[in-house]
From TrEMBL:
Alphabetical list of Gene3D superfamilies matching this protein: MFS general substrate transporter like domains
Protein name: Battenin
An individual GO BP term: regulation of protein metabolic process
Record organism: Labrus bergylta
Topology of the protein relative to the lipid bilayer: Multi-pass membrane protein
Length: 436
């Protein structure tokens, strides 16, 4: 009997795993690109500013939101070997534009489709690299910092909102990618400058980062049809409503049902958004407190934790503090698949304990070696990264479907608000200790 060849149908489970892996990888790369450009550009901006000021320019290998300083500042009579200006100055210049965007953008960002947002963020990141690379004045470099801050802030709230259209595991990919950006940024920028590549050329090489962001979004992700790529959410709702109106010319009961569904599926009103924000406060306050304590340590205290008899110089000690902190962030932001922590406020309290402990360590200098600080800042990074990914995981889980996209964007203000307040608090603390 003659046998006919039959095609073997594709395994839906295999296709599903492939799609989930693509999306997880896509969000990991988006997280890396979104924060990587920010981290690298900040270190490079400081190098160029030092050159413009005719100071001794040494390659900076600091991690995110840091300012390198000259080892052995003999002109400073303080026992803390301080910089004339706190590292919080650069922190504020970097975080304030992001904070403004996160405060206001969630109310209007739904009018901009995701595809347009990604292109805008990539253009802003590329512009920041070019501005700082070719900078000939301090103002031009600061403008580059602002462009990077806008790209990072808008990208963060946009990609967090975008995760609600995918399976919940992509949030872990995003968190892990953002954690990896700090470590990768520190090592890659340091490596290129260490082998003799100038900061200007290094920045031009980094233009590959915004290109990678565009490729990750448009070619790696496999978004569901519900993602508003090129149309705003309001346009989609209007289109759906128009189609329903045409179908419901007759039948008052069906028309009444359509009106009820529109109230539960249409765009959120301003009053509804305020109601969502009130519900988010239990998440935003603990997240903000974690980041306040975290960046008060990083920008207010870390530079002052100097051990003259240690085998590393002051600059090298500071560099390793920041690097170990970023390693802790990377590990904890990648831990969502293994452990979930609902009570984020416990992480906040532990981080405050870290800040108080190190504040007293700076004041009374009771820590015998930099090794103790290494352990503490690694632990600090673990707490901060865990607070970030768990906050957004449980916001996603506990928010209604219709409110979830807005909630993810609005809650992103928590970390930026904490960082900005930490920068303000770090100024008087730095001034006090450096005056001793």
């Amino acid at each position: 009997m003659e046998q006919t060849a039959t095609s073997v149908p594709a395994d839906p489970e295999t296709n599903g795993r492939s799609t989930r892996w693509r999306n997880w990888s896509g969000f990991w790369l988006l997280g890396l690109c979104n924060n990587f450009a920010y981290v690298v550009m900040l270190s490079a901006a400081h190098d160029i500013l030092k050159k413009q000021s005719s100071e001794n320019n040494t390659a900076s290998a600091s991690a995110s939101l840091t300012v390198d300083f000259q080892s052995g500042n003999s002109s400073n009579s303080s026992r803390y070997d301080c910089n004339p200006v706190s590292t919080a100055a650069v922190l504020l210049a970097d975080i304030l534009p992001t904070l403004v965007i996160k405060l206001f953008a969630p109310f209007v960002i739904h009018k901009m489709p995701y595809g347009v947002r990604v292109l805008f963020c990539a253009v802003m990141a590329a512009t920041s690299f070019l501005l700082v690379s070719f900078s000939s004045a301090v103002l031009m470099s600061i403008l580059g910092v602002i462009f990077a801050s806008v790209s990072s802030g808008l990208g963060e709230l946009s990609f967090l909102s975008l995760t609600v259209f995918f399976s919940r595991d992509v949030l872990g990919g995003w968190g892990s990618g953002t954690g990896g950006a700090g470590v990768a940024g520190a090592f890659i920028y340091s490596g290129l400058t260490q082998v003799g590549v100038s900061p200007q050329i290094t920045l031009l090489i980094m233009l590959v980062v915004p290109v990678a962001m565009v490729i990750s979004y448009f070619f790696l992700l496999d978004p569901p049809p519900s993602v508003p790529q090129w149309r705003s959410r309001e346009t989609e709702y209007a289109a759906v409503g128009s189609e329903e109106d045409e179908q419901l010319i007759d039948g008052s009961e069906e028309e009444e049902k359509s009106t009820t569904e529109e109230r539960t599926t249409g765009p959120l009103t301003f009053t509804e958004k305020l109601h969502v924000i009130r519900g988010l406060l239990k998440f935003v306050f603990p997240l903000g407190l974690v980041y306040f304590a975290e960046y008060f340590i990083n920008q207010g205290l870390m530079e002052l934790l100097y051990f003259p008899d240690f085998f590393l110089s002051h600059a090298e000690q500071y560099r390793w503090y920041q690097t170990l902190y970023q390693v802790g962030v990377l590990v904890s932001r990648s831990s969502l698949c293994c452990v979930k922590i609902r009570k984020v406020w416990t992480l906040s309290l532990l981080q405050v304990v870290n800040a108080v402990l190190l504040l007293f360590a700076v004041k009374y200098q009771f820590l015998p070696s930099a090794w103790f600080v290494f352990v503490i800042v690694l632990y600090e990074g673990l707490l901060g990264g865990a607070a970030y990914v768990n906050t957004f995981y449980f916001i996603r889980e506990e928010t209604e479907d219709r409110q979830r996209e807005f909630a993810m964007a609005a809650a992103s203000v928590g970390d930026s608000l904490g960082i900005a307040l930490a920068g303000l608090a770090a100024f008087p603390v730095h001034r006090y200790f450096c005056s001793l």
